[in-house]
Specification:
Shape: globular
Distance between the termini: 53 Å
Order of helices and strands: HHHHHH
Radius of gyration: 17 Å
Oligomer: single chain
Structural class: mainly alpha
Strand content: under 5%
Length: 169
């Protein structure tokens, strides 16, 4: 296995800042979900609730792991850690909903297409990126793929914020 620092010389210049930024955004976003643990009074023994809590608890750990690997210039492991974020959401949040409610639980029309894309297509693309990174192949492409969900999240927040600024809440 190549030394991460010596391998950095052959990687594109955008790779490190992009991975660090994506990991930081994911870490901050995932930390906000931890407020779910502040009130467990309505928490039952449902497997679905446990899976959601596991997803919420796992995301900050994965994001911070990706950040540490990106800072250390260990691209392979940073990409794998970032790829694990949408995969965790798919396995612990979206897949159980699909199994219990079917596709009807994902809304109607374009909203359904959007949710299915976010819940299944992007995680599967990230799984492919993790496979590429694991094998040390096309790390730049793998990094680009795992950054796409974060970029989409930022765009969604920006569009929502602009909508609220224009039309009010």
């Amino acid at each position: 296995m190549a030394d991460p620092v010596s391998a950095a010389a052959s990687e594109p210049g955008w790779l490190r800042p992009a991975l660090i930024t994506a990991a930081l955004v994911e870490a901050v976003a995932s930390l906000s979900g931890l407020t779910l643990f502040s009130d467990l009074s309505g928490f039952g023994n449902s497997p679905g609730q446990w899976m959601i809590f596991t997803d919420v608890a796992l995301k900050p750990l994965l994001a911070l792991t990706a950040l540490v690997f990106a800072i250390r210039r260990d691209w392979r492991h940073a990409v794998i850690a970032l790829a694990a974020l949408p995969l965790a959401t798919m396995l612990l949040d979206s897949l159980p909903s699909l199994l219990t409610e079917g596709v009807q639980g994902f809304g109607e029309g374009l909203f359904r297409v959007y949710l299915l894309e976010r819940s299944f297509l992007l995680p599967l693309a990230c799984a492919w990126a993790a496979w590429l990174a694991w094998n040390g192949k096309r790390l730049a492409l793998a990094a680009l793929i795992v950054i796409i969900p974060t970029v989409l999240d930022v765009v969604e927040v920006a569009v929502f914020t602009i909508g609220i600024a224009i039309y009010g809440f």
